[in-house]
Amino acid sequence: MSATRPSTIETAIEGCRPTDKTPVTLDAAALPSSRDDLRDLQTELAANDFVPAGVTVQACFDVNCSFATQDEADRIREYIRTAAFLGAGTVTVEFDAVEDESKVRPSLAALKERARREGVTLDGLAGRADELAGEGRTTVRVAADGRALGVIAIADAPRETAASRAPP
User: What CA–CA distance (Å, rounded) separates 14 from 123?
Assistant: First the structure.
């Protein structure tokens, strides 16, 4: 029988102490690809009192091609692994357009599951929807089994007759 009490999430949270490190979000496009360079980045971040909190990835799903969608999902998957390696807790995937939602939905679901297994949260879909709605676009949120998978933005060009029909 052990003399120490069992470790729980509550116990871990109770033991938290503030630190003087500054959380930063890293742009995925600027990250090195080799593990050695990523280790150097970790060292440099620590030397400057930074801690990676998240990684932001610009994604492109605007081609109606299963191979292109899979290639993009594979690229994002590598950034999820990179974020986990660096100790970042969140990967934010940003994208403007989705050509074929039926091809993208399964890829996003798989990416979300991969992120969960890597201990990272895949995020940014709700915030992106709000941003697109603020730009005057209609947004459609894609979900399966109660989990957010993506955002589709729809924008119509204004009609020439719209100004004449607008109330004074």
Answer: 26
